[in-house]
């Protein structure tokens, strides 16, 4: 199985301050990896975490985020993914359950589209997140919990 990491888990494992929750998340990801699952960092999630690290001037966090690209599979965004994200965005609004404000970039639908596109390569794919409510309407999602 391929496990796509959402910004919550990526933010935790890229944080150089080793909180109990960050260490639990890192251990959980290690357990998934040891079980043979491919851990994937989608480019849209790198963007979401990176922009905040840059804004907050957290250089050590940026270094750790860059290191994660070598630890796990990095999945770039492509045009087909953005087309699928636009479909997901419109569909959620038609159904009356949008994942973000209409004016926002809506990273959740882009992440869902990256996951959907990647899963069409034949292997089951799931998003690991701290809040699966928005994502689970499009693709399978599991929730990381330190407790």
Describe the protein in words.
Helix content is 53%, strand content 14%. The chain has 147 residues and is of the alpha/beta class. The mean pLDDT is 90.
Quick synopsis:
With 147 residues, this protein is an alpha/beta fold. It is 53% helix and 14% strand.
Q: What oligomerization state is this entry in?
A: single chain
Number of strands: 5
As a whole number of angstroms, the C-alpha radius of gyration is: 15 Å
Strand and helix order = EHHEHHEHHEE
Any low-confidence stretches, pLDDT <50, length ≥5? none
Q: What class do helices, strands and sheet pairing give?
A: alpha/beta
Index terms:
5-stranded parallel sheet, 147 residues, alpha/beta
Topology:
Elements: E1 2-5, H1 7-14, H2 20-34, E2 38-42, H3 43-55, H4 59-71, E3 73-75, H5 79-94, H6 107-119, E4 125-129, E5 141-143
Parallel strand pairs: 1-2, 1-4, 2-3, 4-5
């Amino acid at each position: 199985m391929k496990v796509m990491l959402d910004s919550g888990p990526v933010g935790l494992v890229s944080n150089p301050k080793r909180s109990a929750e960050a260490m639990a998340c890192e251990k959980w990801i290690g357990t998934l990896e040891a079980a043979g699952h491919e851990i994937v960092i989608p480019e849209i999630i790198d963007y979401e975490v990176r922009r905040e690290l840059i804004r907050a001037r957290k250089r050590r966090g940026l270094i750790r985020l860059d290191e994660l690209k070598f630890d796990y599979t990095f999945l770039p965004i492509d045009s087909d993914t953005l087309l699928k994200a636009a479909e997901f965005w419109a569909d959620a609004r038609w159904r009356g359950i949008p994942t973000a404000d209409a004016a926002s970039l809506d990273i959740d639908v882009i992440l869902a589209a990256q996951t959907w596109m990647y899963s069409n390569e034949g292997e089951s794919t799931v998003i690991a997140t701290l809040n699966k409510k928005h994502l689970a309407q499009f693709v399978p999602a599991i929730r990381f919990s330190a407790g």
